[in-house]
UniProtKB/TrEMBL annotation:
Belongs to the plant dirigent protein family. InterPro entries: Allene_oxi_cyc_Dirigent, Dirigent. This is Dirigent protein. It is found in: Secreted, Extracellular space, Apoplast. Residues 1-19 form the signal peptide. Keywords: Apoplast, Secreted, Signal. It holds the Pfam family Dirigent. It comes from Herrania umbratica. Dirigent proteins impart stereoselectivity on the phenoxy radical-coupling reaction, yielding optically active lignans from two molecules of coniferyl alcohol in the biosynthesis of lignans, flavonolignans, and alkaloids and thus plays a central role in plant secondary metabolism. GO terms for cellular component: apoplast. One of its GO terms (biological process) is phenylpropanoid biosynthetic process. Homodimer.
């Protein structure tokens, strides 16, 4: 076949396809509710600031001496147990914004993605303030991917250990999803 023939075929095939895309929305219909399910997740978050292998890297800081407002980029491993050698089952990626004027509250925008077991490839999204100096705290789960599509829920956190460069946090997450 010569080139012009191939071109006219492509054009012909494209015309009906283009017609399908003549509007950007569907008809609005009632959403038939499916039964919701609940899954409880339990894991440990390992954060490291500084050192040779940081999981949290500050990328911006206000040039005002009276506050330490900053933005930190995170990629922290999640493990089954609290030990750093415990099996890694996923990672939390996103941002931490030190928004508070006294720096005790961090607002987190984190995607907790799982890489092992039944939830491999799925993730839960946390978008919440995190009052890090409180022993126990609650964060909102606002959505999810994969198995956790359309998720809502909450995460209960407790600091397991904290030293100069490492922070280990226990997470109990209740996720309601379809
Ligand atoms: C911070 O801001 C002041 C005044 O605008 C400027 O003189 C100083 O160089 C800045 N410092 C840094 C580290 O950018
Ligand atoms: C998570 O749940 C377990 C089992 O119920 C409990 O022992 C643990 O204290 C909880 N941790 C948090 C941070 O809520």
């Amino acid at each position: 076949m010569d080139k012009t023939l191939i071109l006219s075929w492509i054009l012909l095939l494209c015309i009906p396809a283009a017609a399908v895309y003549s509007q950007y929305y569907s008809e609005t219909m009632p959403c038939v509710p499916k039964e919701k399910q609940v899954t409880n997740l339990h894991f440990f978050f390992h954060g490291t600031i500084g050192g040779n292998n940081p999981t949290a890297v500050p990328v911006a800081r206000a040039n005002i001496t009276s506050t330490s407002n900053s933005i930190v980029v995170d990629d922290a491993p999640l493990t089954v147990g609290p030990e750093p050698t415990s099996e890694v089952i996923g990672n939390a990626q996103g941002l931490e914004v030190f928004a508070d004027r006294d720096t005790t509250t961090v607002v987190v925008y984190l995607d907790f993605g799982f890489t092992k077991g039944q939830f491999d490839g799925s993730s839960i999204i946390l978008f919440s303030r995190n009052p890090v100096t409180q022993k126990e705290r609650e964060l909102a789960v606002v959505g999810g991917r994969g198995t956790f599509r359309m998720a809502k829920g909450f995460a209960l956190l407790r600091t397991y250990s904290l030293d100069k460069i490492t922070l280990i946090v226990e997470y109990n997450v209740t996720v309601i999803h379809y």
